[in-house]
Amino acid sequence: MASNRTGSNRTEVPQAREALNRFKMEVAGEIGVPLKQGYNGDLTSYQNGSVGGEMVRRMIQRQEESMSGTTASAGTGSAPAAGLGQPGGPQAGSTGQSQGF
To answer: Could you tell me where the Low complexity compositional bias lies (predicted)?
Structure first.
């Protein structure tokens, strides 16, 4: 049944699944979320959401850099440029503009 998944929570490129899992674990470790392989039902939705949100921010940043031909975080793996998500670094949504919700 798992091989015939039709939900939105599937990897479009099956070969990327392991890389995404490594990326998820790396992000979780960097932002202090005690994510582990397997069951993580003991974590709050806030903790899980912070991992997913940071992953999306970094993937968008990488895509923007590749489209513009620049690399602000060249040679740093998946570490965020300019300290995004890091203590003391700029936080997402801190542009001073209202988020509208």
So the answer is: 68-84
